[in-house]
Each structure stands twice: as C-alpha cells, then as structure tokens.
Design the sequence.
C-alpha cells in the first residue's frame, strides 16, 4: 500500500504542469522496484547411471519375465512386478524391478537400456540408477564373481576353514573357525553358494556371485572383533583403515 502511494505521488509530480523537483535522496524511494527474477524452469536431468547402456559380456544371458502380482509384506497394495534373470557361467541371479521401469534388451548389440515413465517423480528417478547398479552388479557376479578379503590384525589372531559334519546345514558345508582371543574358538557357517578359503593364517578370502551376500557374511565375521582406534587391532574388510588415537593419559 505504501509503495502504491509513493508511485502516485511520483506520477503527480511528473505530470503536473508546475515544475516540482524532489530531493535527490528521495528519488530512489519513489521509484518502482524492478520485477523479481523468476525461478529456473530447466527440464529434469536424467540419471547419469540410468541412461548409460549396460553391456552384456559373452556367455551371459539376460531374460525379462512377464509382470506378476506378488504379495508385499510391507504394504497392502498389490503391485505387479517383473523379474529379470541374469544367468552366466558361475550361476544365476534374479532381480525384481518395479512396474514403471522398462528394460530394452538389444540381443544383437548385447546391451540393455533402462527407461522410466515419468522423470518428475522422485521415486522413479531414485530407482532408475539403483536398478541399473543392481543389474550391472549381477552381470559382473555371474561372469567374474565378487570377492572380499578379511585381514586379521592382532596377536594370536588366526583363521582356518574346516568342516563340521554335525553342525552342517547342507552337505559339504564348511565353517570359518576364528581364534580371536576368546576362551573358545568362533565358528561361522559359510552360506550356500559361497566359498571361503584362508591363503594365509591371518587372511580370509570370500567368493560368491551375489555381492550383497558376500559383504553381509564379511560383516558378520567382522562384528566379532571390530577395529579399535587405540592399538589398531581387529578384523578389517578389503581396504578398510582406521585412524589411531592417542592413549588416554590420566
């Protein structure tokens, strides 16, 4: 309201026949403010990973199933989902993809491209790159496999891979036996479809086609002796490091 009254006073001063002059310090106050800058209206940027074609190496097959309705324990909605099956020389893996994702598989060029329905929806943009990473990880797993190396750092820490027929859950199951300073050895059963070996007494090599299961089993072993920051002892996974702290001085 004050700005409009100032504008009217200025118009009257300019349009009046009599010469009316305003002081120099009052002129900026009576001038109309410039229009505000509008927000940017640039289009949505596509996902950097999602728009990248996935290359399928020789010996790996990618199959896309038909939509099927499965009961989801987290929601009451019945959402049809498709299953992408990745098979290779080392095994086979399945992945469920949401209905708004489309996989364009070019068998001649041996590559796959992912697309979504609406780029303005946040959930679809998030799952675009996530699904791309899962499919690429499965392709790498069935063709080359995933590994995890655990390093045992500490006096007397040792690891061996042995069989326990009485405790085995499936035929030929092996156990990772750890000596970590407890009064008893720690035994961790190796999950089905995964291999464990000890090239050195203080090294554990885990191999499998599913990276999520490999890293989950590595974390399960690591929780027995997490790396501590004062002496640097513990179980380290792959290139994990820890910054040492100074000893507490009383």
Sequence:
């Amino acid at each position: 309201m004050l700005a409009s009254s100032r504008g009217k006073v200025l118009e009257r001063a300019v349009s009046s026949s009599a010469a009316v002059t305003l002081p120099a310090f009052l002129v900026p106050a009576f001038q109309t403010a410039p229009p505000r800058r509008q927000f940017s209206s640039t289009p949505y940027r596509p996902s950097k990973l999602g728009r990248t074609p996935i290359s399928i190496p020789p010996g790996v097959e990618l199959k896309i199933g038909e939509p099927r309705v499965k009961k989801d324990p987290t929601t009451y909605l019945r959402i049809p989902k498709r299953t992408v099956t990745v098979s290779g020389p080392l095994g086979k893996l399945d992945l469920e993809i949401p209905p708004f994702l489309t996989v364009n598989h070019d068998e001649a060029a041996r590559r796959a491209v992912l697309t979504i329905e609406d780029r303005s929806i946040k959930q679809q943009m998030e799952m675009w790159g996530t699904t791309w990473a899962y499919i690429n990880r499965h392709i790498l797993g069935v063709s080359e496999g995933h590994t995890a190396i655990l390093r045992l750092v500490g006096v007397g820490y040792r690891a061996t891979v042995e069989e326990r027929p009485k405790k085995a859950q499936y035929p030929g199951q092996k156990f990772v036996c750890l000596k970590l300073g407890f009064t008893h050895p720690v035994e961790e059963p190796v999950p089905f479809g995964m291999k464990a070996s000890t090239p050195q007494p203080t090294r554990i090599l885990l191999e499998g086609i599913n990276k999520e299961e490999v890293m989950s089993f590595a974390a399960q072993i690591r929780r027995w002796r997490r790396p501590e920051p004062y002496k640097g002892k513990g179980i380290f996974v792959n290139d994990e490091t820890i910054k040492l702290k100074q000893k507490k001085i009383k």
About this structure: The chain has a mean pLDDT of 85. The CA atoms of residues 83 and 96 lie 4 Å apart. The radius of gyration is 32 Å.
